[in-house]
Amino acid sequence: MKRRRLESAALSAGCVVVALFILAPFAWMLVCSVAGEAELTRRPPVFAPSPTLANYAFIFTGQMPQDKTRHGIFVWQTSHEVRMLMPALRNSFIVALSVMAANVVFGALAAYSFARVAFSGRRSAYVFILTSRLLPAVAVAIPFYAIVQRLELLDTYRALILVYLAFTFPFTVYFLSVYFRYLPAEVEEAALLDGCTRFSTLLRVVVPCAAPGLMAAAAFAFMTAYNEFLFALLLTQTIAAQTMPVLLAAVATNPAVSHALLAACVILAIIPPALLAVVLRRYLTSGLIASVAR
Amino acid sequence: MTRPSLYPYATILPVMLVVAVFTVYPLLHSVYLSVHENVLTRPLDNDFVGLQNFREVVGGYYFWRSLWSTAVFAVMAVAAVTLYGLGVALLLNQPGVLGSTLLKVVVLLPWAIPSVISGIIWRWIFDGDYGVLNGLLLATGVVERYVPWMSQPFTARLCMVIAHVWKQGPLAAVFLLAALQIIPAELYDAVRMDGAGRWNAFRFVTVPYLKATLALVLIYETIVAVATFDLVYVMTGGGPADATAIIGWYAYTEIFRFLNLGRGAALAIILGLLLLGLVMIYLRLLRSEEAA
Q1: How many CB pairs below 8 A link A and B?
Q2: Do B22 and A119 touch (CB under 8 A)?
Q3: Least CB-CB distance to B234: which of A22, A252, A288?
Q4: By the 8 A CB rule, do A197 and B49 touch?
Q5: Strands, E, within B23-167: which ranges?
Q6: If you write DSSP's letter for every residue of chain A in order, what string do you get?
Q7: A195: phi > 0 → left, psi -120 to 50 → alpha, else beta; which?
Q8: Distances, alpha carbon B8 to alpha carbons A117, A119, A129, A207, A292, in Å
Q9: Given this model, what pLDDT does residue B259 score?
Q10: What is the CATH number of the domain that holds B120?
Q11: How far is residue A182's CA from residue A210's CA, in Å, rounded to a whole number?
């Protein structure tokens, strides 16, 4: 029994160590986001700075934190980019929410047909959609740019939404069609016999049953669009359409970056996906497993 | 029910349209670009050059260098992600262990956030001038002065691998956890009856059951590691001395810095074929697992 208890203590310790490894970087960002720049540029830095909301205040209101004003022009330039965080987050949300909505609506429509309706060409259309994802992103970067340029959509939301739909549709269709196939078919057949069309069966019978699956699909689509970087970098040029990862990459690779301000940006930017990850973690986990295992 | 319904075709049309436009055309366009001269700074020279772009890529010094950097990074990253993922999965699979619930709640967090942000966070931690890692090591007396982690090839690679593991590990852990959970509990009871300890139970029950999933995770993580781009962009910019200029980054610089679309497209096709090869192995493994 003693050995048993020792083992379980060791396992608990392991869990705590891993949880620390996962959480510590977030915690340090949180600390930095309420620190003054001077406290972070000491050697070693002040590990528990006296908290201030000045960094956040600057992002929202443009009021310069006290300790920035004496640093001169370079910090001011970086700080100016940081002020674009809210517009960039707004762009990210518009794009990600559109991608999410289109995935749920069109993805569910298509997935249901693939799962339940017999039609000629079904198999090859399905295989075509799935294999399209085998193209690695960087390999199609130039042609994507060319398409978007020809459609005169450079630096618009629509370009990003289209590209992200091309990336997310295959997974959504695959994920939802697998999900729909696991639902009991009898209820749907009864609805069809009662004179419902395929569409109203989907809407009234399938969608309520598949709500968890739809939620997971929506969350995946949202996160993919919210987190994407390469194409956002290529296809946008100004803050009219630049998304959050593009803006933050620009801030972070600026040699004159203010780390306190950058940390505040990071904290604000990770709130949406972090919330999704914690709140929807059961759906996401089962969704992830389904995506590789089947 | 005499005439075929239009309903299924109407429902798959939007998805098919978007996917087709962004698959068929890019493929043709890439192939076209790769066999023509196409340098943006010389827009009028647009001759058909056959396989010259491919020859230039394969004959180039930087191509082999980046392949080497890619291989080094991929081997380190895949091994680390898989081991870490397995460890976390084993920890999560212990019901009733204190702390396992906490881990379950937070484990997806790094996976959920943009990889650009994970790069930003780790770059700041490893910063040679003001990084908190240096701060902690100095405060505890492990080092006497700050170490420029990101300025030396080996440590820069190591930093990237750590950031990569932090970000990608959760996914590997979730996959492996799923595989662990379908191992029948009777098997563990049986070996315990035979007097086997935890280690032997792990060796003779867990490992054989996990083999197929481990193979899948290995291949999948190889694909992810080879295609890594965001992390390089924000953490190192390919440096120091090209140590982290892995092939996805190299293709990007070829195209968007040197504006040589022809060579960029040739490189993209080579990279695409490389990844396609890995995907094929992956799919074959999947199928053989299903058959088993």
Answers
A1: 273
A2: no
A3: A252
A4: no
A5: none
A6: -HHHHHHHHHHHHHHHHHHHHHHHHHHHHHHHHTS-HHHHTSSS--SSPPP--HHHHHHHH-PPPGGGGGG-HHHHHHHHHHTTHHHHHHHHHHHHHHHHHHIIIIIHHHHHHHHH---TTHHHHHHHHHHGGGS-GGGGHHHHHHHHHHTT-TTSHHHHHHHHHHHHHHHHHHHHHHHHHTS-HHHHHHHHHTT--HHHHIIIIIHHHTHHHHHHHHHHHHHHHHH--HHHHHH--STTT--HHHHHHHHHTSTT--HHHHHHHHHHHHHHHHHHHHHTHHHHHHHHHHHHH-
A7: left
A8: 7, 7, 15, 17, 27
A9: 80
A10: 1.10.3720.10
A11: 10
ipTM score of complex: 0.90
CB contact (8 A) between residue A43 and residue B130: yes
Angle in degrees, CA B156, B157, B162, rounded to 5: 100
Considering the domain boundaries, does residue B230 fall inside one?
yes
Instruction: Read off the pLDDT of residues B220-238 as tens digits, 9 standing for 90 and up.
Output: 898 889 889 999 999 998 8
Which member of A106, A274, A281 has the closest CB to residue B113? A274
How confident is residue B3, by pLDDT bands cut at 50, 70 and 90? low
Check whether B265 has a pLDDT greater than 70.
yes
- Chain A residues with CB under 8 Å of B229 CB are 137-138, 229-230
| B91 in contact with chain A, both atoms CB, cutoff 8 A | yes
Asked if pLDDT for residue B44 goes beyond 80, the answer is no
Task: List chain A residues with CB under 8 Å of B230.
Answer: 229-230, 245
Label residues A38-66 b or e (16+ Cβ within 10 Å = b): bbbbeebbeeebeebebbbebbeeeeebe
Residue B280's SS3 state is: helix
Read off the pTM. Answer: 0.90
- Which of the 8 DSSP states describes residue B122? H
CATH no. of A85-244+280-293: 1.10.3720.10
Q: Is residue B111 in some structural domain?
A: yes
> How many Cβ atoms are within 10 Å of A121's Cβ, its own excluded?
11
Query: Is B78 within a domain?
Result: yes
Report the C-alpha gap between A246 and B140 in whole angstroms: 37
- Residue B292 confidence (pLDDT): 54
Show the domain range for B147.
68-261+268-291
Residue B1 lies in a domain: no
Q: What is the mean pLDDT of residues B147-170?
A: 94
A201 vs B27: CA distance, rounded Å: 38
pLDDT at residue B1 in the model = 45
Number of domains in chain B: 1
Reading chain A (294 residues) residue by residue, the pLDDT tens digits are 677 788 888 888 999 999 999 999 999 999 999 998 888 888 899 999 989 898 999 899 888 776 665 555 445 556 678 899 999 999 999 999 999 999 999 999 999 999 999 999 999 999 899 888 777 777 788 888 888 998 999 999 999 999 999 999 999 999 899 889 888 888 888 999 888 898 999 999 999 988 888 999 999 999 999 999 999 999 999 999 999 999 999 999 888 788 899 999 999 999 999 999 988 888 888 777 766 654
